[in-house]
Amino acid sequence: MEEDDGAEEQQRFSYRQRLKAAVHYTVGCLCEEVALDKETQFSKQAIAAISEKILPKTLKCLQDMRKEVQLTLKM
């Protein structure tokens, strides 16, 4: 049982890290587009701060979507 819990926890951690990287990458791409359009630059720290601010909202949205899918599948 403990091995299953450990494996599940590791899987959650891995999923969260991949999601965090995807959000950071996407924010970086969007910042790059805005920077080109507005002729400005975003520091790596600014991109990281924006990513960290967005991540909890992204997780909440994904949880809500998962619940909706589960409810839909039960119908």
TrEMBL record:
<dbReference type="GO" id="GO:0046982">
    <property type="term" value="F:protein heterodimerization activity"/>
</dbReference>
<dbReference type="InterPro" id="IPR009072">
    <property type="entry name" value="Histone-fold"/>
</dbReference>
<dbReference type="GO" id="GO:0071821">
    <property type="term" value="C:FANCM-MHF complex"/>
</dbReference>
<protein>
    <recommendedName>
        <fullName>Centromere protein S</fullName>
    </recommendedName>
</protein>
<dbReference type="Pfam" id="PF15630">
    <property type="entry name" value="CENP-S"/>
</dbReference>
<dbReference type="InterPro" id="IPR029003">
    <property type="entry name" value="CENP-S/Mhf1"/>
</dbReference>
